[in-house]
Amino acid sequence: MKITMLKSAGAALKKATTASPSPCVSTHLLSRAYYSTGYPERKVAILGAAGGIGQPLSLLMKLNPFVSSLSLYDIANTPGVAADVSHINSPAQVTGYVGEEQLGKALEGSDLVIIPAGVPRKPGMTRDDLFNINAGIVKSLCVAIAKYCPNALVNMISNPVNSTVPIAAEVFKKAGTRDERKLFGVTTLDVIRAKTFYAGKAKVPVADIDVPVIGGHAGITILPLFSQAAPKANLPDDDIMALTKRTQDGGTEVVEAKAGKGSATLSMAYAGAVFADACIKGLNGVPAIVECSFVESSVTELPFFASQVKLGKDGVEQVFGLGPLSEFEKQGLENLKPELKASIQKGIKFANQN
Ligand SMILES: NC(=O)C1=CN([C@@H]2O[C@H](COP(=O)(O)OP(=O)(O)OC[C@H]3O[C@@H](n4cnc5c(N)ncnc54)[C@H](O)[C@@H]3O)[C@@H](O)[C@H]2O)C=CC1
Ligand SMILES: O=C([O-])CC(=O)C(=O)O
């Protein structure tokens, strides 16, 4: 009896292995069902696509099921990056553009432009030390955006974000294309760090955590609101102070660990992809999409400020207020205002002088 069973099991095995493989065997990272139809075609352009952030961000946007066209622009090396990413069997059609003369084509028809172009920090530098190089890069890219895709949403990653976003706003104002709903400083990495660090300290599952982060994107201008963390863990004040400092210094932690080889690229690409996905979902009419971002704002007396925003069919649909703050956070808010104000003014001045 035993022998018979073994024999028939062997026969079944033989039968299974000689049959052709199922046509459903998936070579998709995302399930095929996720590539749902019925959403509008969306073109996304990445400016600085061959860089440390640009390359993994290009990969992640190629995997985004809502992207139909992916335009990769840089001043060098984009043909290789585009050829590489284009072999992935997801729907987005990938095109590489290189050099200023191809920038217009890269941008034309874009619904969303993501900008990680510019130099990163080395140990000992502040984000503001990048201003002299990155301000000019961002300005010229925004002049082209105003010309070739004036209605696109713009996700600004290039540092110093506290100044590059005001530069972009001024460029768009001068070009007559400014729409305060469409310009975003990407502060998602601050939120991702706050969630990760909080979950570690509170010993709660990281996937369940939400922590708003307000202010700007540099040092003390980054203000995580752990008093509003959900779920609430009732951590002692010392822990909250340490978590706040670690979130504010998160970028520096990576810069120092990379020891001269740049700043956060992989976590930033992830953060950039999360925020871009939220923007596209908003454009597509998916309800209740809320993320923190550095936007034109009347939440405080400063003209730009990061807080939670609701994303809709035209970009920002609603900028949310700050909610109740702890005494520690109220103090943090007052402390950050002078630095954030100065960085905003520096950007506005640069855009109007040069
Ligand atoms: N918002 C945030 O949370 C974060 C922002 N960053 C910032 O992102 C920027 C990029 O960082 P990485 O990718 O690490 O730098 P990277 O040096 O690796 O890459 C930058 C890319 O920009 C390109 N580029 C330079 N000038 C350009 C132009 N005129 N047009 C198009 N592309 C141009 C370069 O060729 C390069 O490929 C930096 O300013 C960095 O500080 C970095 C991490 C987080
Ligand atoms: O720290 C930097 O220079 C890059 C950055 O903005 C971040 O990692 O948050």
From TrEMBL:
GO terms for biological process: malate metabolic process; tricarboxylic acid cycle. Gene3D superfamilies: Lactate dehydrogenase/glycoside hydrolase, family 4, C-terminal, NAD(P)-binding Rossmann-like Domain. It catalyses: (S)-malate + NAD(+) = oxaloacetate + NADH + H(+). Substrate binds at R121, R127, N159, R193. Keywords: NAD, Oxidoreductase, Tricarboxylic acid cycle. It is an enzyme of class 1 (oxidoreductase). Its EC number is 1.1.1.37. Residues 43-185 form the Lactate/malate dehydrogenase N-terminal domain. Residues 187-350 form the Lactate/malate dehydrogenase C-terminal domain. One of its GO terms (molecular function) is L-malate dehydrogenase (NAD+) activity. The active site is at H217. NAD(+) binds at G48, A49, A50, G51, G52, I53, G54, D74, N134, I157, S158, N159, M268. Coiled coil: none annotated. GO terms for cellular component: mitochondrion. CDD domains: MDH_glyoxysomal_mitochondrial. Belongs to the LDH/MDH superfamily. MDH type 1 family. Homodimer. This is Malate dehydrogenase.
